[in-house]
Amino acid sequence: MDFNNIEELVVLCKSGDERSKEVIAAEFTPYIINLSKKCYVGFYDFEDIKNECYFTLFKCIKLYDTSKHRFVAYATNALRNSVNLLIRSSLNKRPKDGTQTISFDSNIDEQSVLDDMNLEDLICNKLILASLHIQIKKLSLEEQELIDYVYFKGYTFRKFAELKNISYYKIIGMKDRILDKLKASTRKTPSTCNKLLN
Asked: What sign does the CA torsion over 51, 52, 57, 58 have?
């Protein structure tokens, strides 16, 4: 991706040139496809996630300050944040008790997500999410509050430290311990997936 060329295209696009908008979309398509393939968002299929990314990209073009000369970094960051927001809102909508989070659609073979994602990967992603929900429930109340406040509600660790009147560095230490616990517990899930699917 030629960053300078992208900057020029964004300027043209902001002046109403539709052709440059198409070229920008084509330049970002590999990144958007890669990003959309890597995540599972409940209630969204692959095409929905892709469309959400294009919507975010075009919004970036509209809001971008051309004097900054950092459109690629600005847009890729916005795209990641957009997908993370979808994931957070999806997790907030799903039930929180273990296997209830796994819902198999009877029309699953008709979903276009399966054109780009292996069925085994899809099932394993759901099992990992289910396992993660169970492990979060095993954390202390304060640890659960931290996870909810930062990862689901989107606030910062510094804001949580202020809210709880605790040192910021203590909160970062707590975050590292929580992530270590969750990584250790979900590390077993892929091997479980392999046993179930083989």
From this structure: positive
